[in-house]
Amino acid sequence: MENAFAPISEACVKALSDKTYEKRKVAALEIEKMVTDFKTKKNMTQIKRIIDVLSRDFVRSNDSNKKKGGLIALAATSIALGKDTEKFIEDIVNPIMNCLIDNDNRVRFFASESLYNVVKVARGAVLPFFPSVFNALSRLVTDPDQSIKNGSEILDRLLKDIVIESSQTFDLDAFIPLVRERIMVKSSFARQFIISWISVLNAVPEINMVMFLPEILHGLFQILEDPLPEIQRMCESLLAQFLKIIKLDPTAADIPKMTNVLIVQAQSSNPLIQFYAISWIKEFVQLSGGEILCFSSGIFTAILPCLAFESDAKKNIKDCANAVNLNLLELISNGEDKQKNLSYLDLNSVMEVLRQYLVHSPVPTKIAVLKWVHHLFTEVHDEMSEHANKLFPVLLRDCLSDSSDEVVLQAIVVLAEIVNSATVKGNDFDQTQYRQFLVELLNLFSENNTFLEKRGTLIIRQLCRLLNAEYIYRTFAEILLEERINLKIASTMVRTLNMILLTTSDLFDLRNMLHDIRNEKSASLFECLYRCWAHCPVSTLSLCLLAQCYQHVSEIVTLFADIEITVDFLVEIDKMVQLIESPIFASLRLALISHSNDNADAQHLSRALYGILMLLPQTEAFHLLNNRLKCVPNYWSQPNKISSKSTNESQCNIKFDELFIYFKHIQDLHHQKRVEKRKKNQF
């Protein structure tokens, strides 16, 4: 009967199927000798038959011992063939590859060993099967059997050597998809395998891995979160190598594609991933210049939250994000390339992102956003004008109500810039724009009295520093007069404005302006403020003292006898007395001993202050004012010598009689309001 395994003898077949390794090894050596003889005789047909038998009847058998024997024999066949293995490479490699996924650990071990021996002989001839071999290796490195892992490492090193030898013909286009498919796996061993391959290929001068970096960059960043420090270090080193190459030759890299990847990674919850992503963005901003501005909205989304990091563990991320932010600001401000850089900026998408971060963001983030908005208004105010309407509600309703003074102040800087950027060209202010803004601000104060009391002074002071203080005061007064506003809100607003006027150094010029009501412009401002200040009697008194209308002050103090003296009234009087001792009212104190205007101003002022003294209970303020008045000459003995034509009031065009009537009318309204409130409370 003909031998079905010919040219392999039945004895050899039996030994090759034996359960002991030694017998299988002896049989494999016999096959190696047979193949050597056939090779010498150039009998390739018989060699092909041996390979077919080994593949069909052994390696593909269900018997694990036959599989092991067949695997050893195929390796022996390849050793015997030497360089001629290339002629049979497919018939030898494919059966072995199938056994690498066998359920039997020993079969997988012998398969990896067999493949190593075949690859060692075939070398470059195995490269057409590289994808299959690489796939197999990627599984072997995660095998639960340590001996298989060890064997796979040896095979892996060999395959890398072969690829390096054949670098000029290596199919990198086929390799990258293999990496991309496996780079997202969670196994530390698989990650180590992938990183090692990328590192090896990146070190080969003939291979340009940077051009394929956008396809694998996401996966590399994900490897940074591996729990094993060794894997993290390997990945960090690889990323550093890539970045070094990119910095040497930025044109070799697809920076735009990678920037999109980095923006996503920079929003990772993993600090290490976040740090490296933002570090790369920082480098790309410096390398790309203005072109990177087309990614501004995405970069803002990535870095703005990082500016609020407070822990020491994230300080490096915050510092890096700050650096990116400053670099982007410089690109917008760059004089030489400013216009070119701005052409890359998608203002609509940038403003959409910035507006989002103005609400429900930490303080440092809000401040950075507000500085950006202000910067854009100063650099491209024409283009930014269309965004003003959308920004106003956010700035007014959210930012000015923020718990942080720094946010409030910065928001006012932006609001002031928006108002200024909307003014007409020239020296005159756009009154409509100013008025609209102040009306909105006043509405905000009206809706929330606590907000006015806590933030009003801060906001108005900052506005006066940044805008035209005279116009702000005049407009506020006009609005309060024209609008049907709550009387309590009006009086609170007046007290706030008055205290700012009397105490803020930035309003020095405005106070000086009110000192001289003989000037037509000053007189106009005084009248406007007076009609508004009438809501608060003590504020009205302060305004008149500031304007040196001492005769009118005396008349108002006399009227106080008919006004309801409340606790709030006495508190305000107390504050005013304290202010009289301040540097702001130095001219008032000197007026008490002045001989100008035939002593008229001094006498009216003295009588007014004595009247105030009589209104005060004997508190600290009483004694303070009393001590001051003790230093004043006694004008009471000459009451009839005061000439109304000698007073400051007589030297201006202000109709004080009408103002006095108006003041009494407003005070009557307030009195009626208090009476109505008491009646309601009774029920």
TrEMBL record:
GO terms for biological process: phosphatidylinositol biosynthetic process. GO terms for cellular component: endosome membrane; PAS complex. Keywords: Membrane, Repeat. It is found in: Endomembrane system. Pfam families: Vac14_Fab1_bd, Vac14_Fig4_bd. It comes from the Eukaryota. Residues 450-632 form the Vacuolar protein 14 C-terminal Fig4-binding domain. Forms pentamers. Component of the PI(3,5)P2 regulatory complex/PAS complex, at least composed of PIKFYVE, FIG4 and VAC14. VAC14 nucleates the assembly of the complex and serves as a scaffold by pentamerizing into a star-shaped structure, which can bind a single copy each of PIKFYVE and FIG4 and coordinates their activities. Interacts with NOS1. Scaffold protein component of the PI(3,5)P2 regulatory complex which regulates both the synthesis and turnover of phosphatidylinositol 3,5-bisphosphate (PtdIns(3,5)P2). Pentamerizes into a star-shaped structure and nucleates the assembly of the complex. The pentamer binds a single copy each of PIKFYVE and FIG4 and coordinates both PIKfyve kinase activity and FIG4 phosphatase activity, being required to maintain normal levels of phosphatidylinositol 3-phosphate (PtdIns(3)P) and phosphatidylinositol 5-phosphate (PtdIns(5)P). Belongs to the VAC14 family. This is Protein VAC14 homolog.
